[in-house]
Design goal:
By secondary structure, this protein is mostly helical. The chain is built from 20 helices and two strands. The radius of gyration is 22 Å and the shape is globular.
């Protein structure tokens, strides 16, 4: 019934357009609920723009906020935010599919195509199995994280057990979904910058959510494989996709941590006053959280300019495909680097880990990165003009940082978010929305001229000069 009614109401929408409408519907519903006086502790409406901004940030798993989550929202408001985070992390089509499975309805071909688009899959087969795997992996990590965080918060002795359970659940869901919403205070996780358990539990959840459900499915199959093979042999059998994900993720996390450790070592506003171990831990957390999580254990407005710029680069790269992270994705960067290395080595094929990649993969990677950069450039330019008369002290780099954080669905900020003008908030709302559904998906959804057979129309070939 649900799928039939959906097809009747949206008969002409493509898979990409269905995703856009689905996320927009969830955001609008969340905004209307958050706009209710019952959602605010003051008993007054927060205002529709602020409610829309918060709903978008939550559903697009970003974490930018215009009002402090702990201080402003009631329990009702926080539950709405948490529900939006969970739905945004799972994705619109996952929720639709689960509803259909619960009512024993069959998935139509159109629904399977939409799921395929949602998770960037090449094969339309096994979509129901994929949705079940996504749901299981999500609930497994969130439950595990909630248990460990509850134990840690309770052991701190600063809150009661019921509050520790609530905080554990809230931050586990927020961290795994790479949302970055915290229910602690205006300083995010800065009060816990010395806590080893909280830092590493949150980091583990962020990485787990950002690795991608496709990779977790492959890892599960390797673990279940009963063949007598060594761990090294099993890892060697990983797909090229998983190898690129793990390689690029490791380089970005540990390379980023080393960069922040060196650059911020003596900065009194960030790492300067910390013991050596805390400096290492905070640098690692900073690098991990920029994978689109949004938590921070050091003040972002205290970062040096080069660190802020480097953070912008990490934010727009983001996490991995078919996960809860944003950005143009690690595999996109990996494919572009593989292309560069192949060209420099004099090869006319894209080769990595003993495999070759088709040319259309490079075209998609360049499109994803290019569209993301255009979104960041245009949005930062617009933000510059909307905030010209903003009394809050800020620089152009602050605006770039804010835009990269929104487009990459990260959620860290140098402090300007609550002080943005309404037009500025609208710019970031659009950035967060495009960042979650994917800039390329938005372009494809808006381009009605795309046809399945267009590539069959051949045109004369002509070369241009590069370099």
């Amino acid at each position: 019934m649900f799928d039939d009614s959906l097809k009747k109401k949206l008969p002409h929408l493509s898979a990409s357009q269905t995703l856009l409408v689905g996320f927009a519907a969830m955001i609008l519903a969340g905004a209307l609920l958050l706009n209710l006086p019952i959602a605010s502790k003051s008993g007054e409406s927060v205002g529709f723009i602020n409610a829309l901004f918060t709903a978008t940030s939550a559903n697009c798993v970003t974490g930018l906020v215009v009002v402090n989550t702990m201080a402003h929202w009631t329990l009702f408001g926080k539950i709405v935010i948490l529900a939006l985070i969970q739905m945004g992390g799972l994705g619109f089509m996952t929720l639709v599919t689960l509803a259909m499975l619960a009512t024993r309805r069959q998935l139509s071909l159109r629904s399977r195509q939409t799921i395929q688009t949602s998770f960037n899959q090449d094969d339309i087969g096994g979509m129901v199995r994929l949705v079940k795997r996504v749901t299981f992996v999500t609930l497994f990590f969130e439950l595990l994280g909630a248990v460990f965080l509850t134990i840690t918060f309770a052991a701190e002795g600063t809150m009661s057990l019921p509050k520790a359970i609530w905080q554990g659940i809230f931050h586990s869901i927020s961290a795994f979904c790479n949302a970055g919403f915290d229910n602690i205070g205006p300083e995010s996780l800065v009060p816990y910058q010395a806590s080893i358990p909280i830092n590493f539990i949150i980091m583990a959840l962020i990485v787990a959510g950002g690795i991608g459900f496709t990779v977790w499915g492959e890892m599960a199959r390797l673990i279940k494989n009963r063949e007598k093979r060594s761990l090294r042999s099993r890892l060697h059998r990983l797909s090229l996709h998983s190898k690129v994900v793990f390689t690029v993720t490791a380089i970005l996390i540990f390379g980023g941590a080393l960069f922040f450790l060196v650059v911020e070592w003596a900065n009194p506003l960030t790492l300067g006053e910390m013991p050596v171990w805390e400096k290492i831990q905070a640098s690692l957390f900073q690098s991990v959280t920029l994978r689109t999580a949004g938590y921070n254990t050091i003040p972002q407005d205290g970062l040096t300019e080069i660190s802020q710029f480097f953070s912008c680069i990490l934010m727009i790269i983001g996490g991995s495909p078919a996960g809860t992270a944003g950005g143009f994705k690690t595999v996109t960067l990996g494919v572009i680097i593989i292309s560069m290395v192949s060209i420099l080595r004099g090869k006319n094929r894209l080769e990595a880990f003993g495999r070759s990649l088709p040319l259309d993969i490079l075209q998609k990677a360049l499109s994803a990165a290019g569209v993301m950069l255009i979104v960041v450039f245009v949005s930062t330019t617009l933000l510059h003009f909307t905030e010209l008369n903003n009394p809050y002290p800020h620089t152009f780099l602050d605006l770039l940082f804010e835009t990269c954080s929104a487009a990459g669905t990260v959620g860290v900020t140098t402090g300007i978010t609550p002080h943005l003008s309404d037009p500025g908030k609208i710019v970031l709302i659009i950035c967060m929305y495009m960042g979650r559904v994917g800039p390329v998906t938005v372009v494809m959804a808006l381009n009605r001229k795309l046809r399945a057979g267009d590539e069959s129309i051949g045109l004369p070939t002509e070369r241009v000069i590069i370099g």
